[in-house]
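Good day; I would like, with your permission, to put a structural problem before you. A protein sequence and the structure tokens that stand for its backbone fold form the material at issue. I would ask you to consider whether the tokens describe a fold that such a sequence might reasonably adopt. I set the record out below, with my sincere thanks for your time.
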Amino acid sequence: MMRKLVRFFNEKNMKDIAFKAMEEYKEFIFEVDSVTTWLDRVLRNPNPVVLQAYANWSIPCRKLMPILEKKTLEAEGKWAYGRLDIDEVPDLATALQIKLVPTVFLINKGHSMNRIEGLPTEESINEFLDDVKLVAGLESDEMVFQGLLSAGKEFIQEKKYDEALRSFSEALKVKSFGEKHFVECYEGMLKAAFNKGDTKLSQEYLEKIKTRKNELSTEGAKFFEDVEKSLNDNKKMSEEFIKKKTVVEEKIRQNPKNYEFMNELCKLYYENGYHEEAIEIGLEIIDLEKSFKGYGQKAVVGILNDLGPSHVLTKPTRKRLQSLHNKYSV
């Protein structure tokens, strides 16, 4: 039975596969052997056509052909690849003003969009194929996606975390590519959110990635584990934090005008990751001291310097500091 199945697969299925492949090959790759073919399959083709003028005696032509064949088949019908033998159809070769082989044209809707002459370098053929893909609409989305992804990574290096979040978020929306690179986008967003100091957003992105963690890069997986550990450590510290907080709050209750104790509370909140609460305490101290030169001002400025200019709390806090400065420096 097994032999029959193997034989069936080998004889029938392989023939079907080969036939299908040959049909696709003939559909997308063809010889321009007459003016009729030129008109029907090149000028009137609804898709872009890469046309290679060649000669059988030319070694560079033979080197280029398999490259263009491969790229055309990979495009799955988004463009066609026509080959024109200048010795077989000399009138067309003359009309196209071909002076050197290979010469490759990008023809779209009857118009020549680009051309390269001679055996192209790898760089020049890639640039030419980028134009083909763009005209074909095959990878314009990919180009947009890659641009957003690169921008997001650069913004993280520059510590522009809000801009990085926007770039990765937009990359996620790019049709087909956002889903395909879902984890890569969220990895970037997690880095931006965590470095920005937004623990709530970091936790949200961790949950998004968790079910597809195996798709992370080695670096991404390490970062994921570090963030997860950091957030979990913060939760574990809560009990100890509450005990210390209770002690300091009792000191404040007994000595309400001793702002050194409030400063101690501010420091305790900050060291345990409660950045926003620490800032609020520091600003409150400024109001209570009615001074911009005491514990409160030093505490808040120190926190902002530590958080850095890109942190989510820095900009709004600086505005409030400026307001208090105007109020108490008069």
Q: What stands out?
A: Confidence is low (pLDDT under 50) at residues 1-9. DSSP finds 16 helices and five strands in the chain. Residues 141-236 form a domain with the Serine Threonine Protein Phosphatase 5, Tetratricopeptide repeat fold (CATH 1.25.40).
